[in-house]
Amino acid sequence: MSFAWLKKYLPRGLYGRAALILIVPVVSVQLVVSVVFIQRHLEDITGQMSMTLVRELDVIAERARTAGTRQEALDRMEPFLSAFEMDVRFVPLEAVPDDDYIRWYDYSARVVRRTVRRAMPETLATVFPDNRLILLYFQSPIGPVEVGVNRRRVTAAAPHQLIVTMVFFGGLMTVIAFLYLRNQLRPITRLADAAQAFGRGRMVPYSPSGATEVRAAGGAFLDMRSRIERQMEQRTMMLSGVSHDLRTPLTRLKLGLSMIDEEEAEPLLRDVAEMQRLLDAFLDFSRGAAEGEPEPTDPVHLVEQIVADAQRAGTPVSLGACEGAGEVPLREMAIRRALENLIGNAVRYGSRAVASVVVTERSLRFRVEDDGPGIPAELRAEAIKPFSRLDPARNQDRGSGVGLGLAIVADVARAHGGVLRLSESASLGGLCADIVIAR
């Protein structure tokens, strides 16, 4: 039997699930004990006490049945009333209630009524006006009889005491257990916060604490973080070193080519310029999103600046819808590089581009669309990989590249805890690239 449908109703947070684990067993035990107590203890005792009352009522009723007048019946009942602790009087028929009166929550009163009516069919009504008195009405040959009985004779004095005590101490122990469990969960939440911050490119101080298993997981996280940092540093140093070392021979080539005939040197200069552009792409990829810590940035203003700078440079890009407001922690230079790469790709493979941004309480989305050929859905995951060049998807006669543009954008998005999503533009028909960052 599958319980997958139940998952959407369960708490998503660790504290909520821990509270549920504590509360459900306590409530279940209290319900079971309450039902057993009511059915087997309270009901049995009330039934036994009610049968004792029934036998006494039968003695009183017998005196009424054999008497000729009401006064004679009262005289015959008198010796028993003080012993039975009852008050008896004859009432007119119109004074008898039309129906029983029992409060909806009064369980023991229902047991008393059921027992009395089953043993004495001549019962006209049973009334429980309060917690101290019971009024019973019976039919006799000389008229209706009202019998007043102290309720303590047929029901327990405080039948709810066990339930109230059980609920109170159950709640108290649940609170104590939750406070203790919260201290055990705090190291796990600290580990989750540190992992989430590292996934978004931020370093927060963290030291393993808590139970042995949590300490082991925290130590493993620190080792993993150190290895990733070393790998990123080595990648940056390697690509930066190679790109930097190649600049010197390129400069010498440019200088040598400037001394020969301009017509002969033109194709070689184009090759040198292409190599220079590829080296710049390597440097951008090596830097990734490593420039400093995130700072409060206005995404709308940032996109407006990028579009204005691109338009001044002659790039056919326009500003689309800009929704929302507020500052978001971003690495401004990294986001600028990512958006400039997307705009550059858009105008390289299309005739125009549109940049937009949407800021909500839970997410931030940068979007760049073009009217180019786009990328087929089955090749979009491949297009994000470094050094990937999709000849069938993008017309590379309109611009060559090393295949790092989308990889740089995806790297910047991941460094901000976001993702790069590629789809088809609904308005322009080309590629739609979204950088989605959770807030």
TrEMBL record:
Instruction: Give me the segments passing through the membrane.
Output: 15-38, 162-181
Q: Where in the cell is it found?
A: Cell inner membrane
* Pfam families given in the database record: HATPase_c, HisKA
Per the record, the major location class is membrane
The record's listing under SUPFAM superfamilies reads: ATPase domain of HSP90 chaperone/DNA topoisomerase II/histidine kinase, Homodimeric domain of signal transducing histidine kinase
What are the protein's UniProt keywords? Answer: ATP-binding, Cell inner membrane, Cell membrane, Kinase, Membrane, Nucleotide-binding, Phosphoprotein, Transferase, Transmembrane, Transmembrane helix, Two-component regulatory system
Note the InterPro entries from the entry.
2C_sensor_his_kinase (IPR050980), HAMP_dom (IPR003660), HATPase_C_sf (IPR036890), HATPase_dom (IPR003594), His_kinase_dom (IPR005467), HisK_dim/P_dom (IPR003661), HisK_dim/P_sf (IPR036097), Sig_transdc_His_kin-like_C (IPR004358)
Residues annotated as domain Histidine kinase:
241-439
Q: How does it sit in the membrane?
A: Multi-pass membrane protein
The HAMP domain covers 182-233
Q: Which chemical reaction does it catalyze?
A: ATP + protein L-histidine = ADP + protein N-phospho-L-histidine
Q: What is one cellular component GO term in this UniProt entry?
A: plasma membrane
The EC number(s) this enzyme carries: 2.7.13.3
Annotated GO molecular function terms are:
ATP binding; phosphorelay sensor kinase activity
What is this protein's record name?
A: histidine kinase
What is the species of this protein? Sedimentitalea arenosa
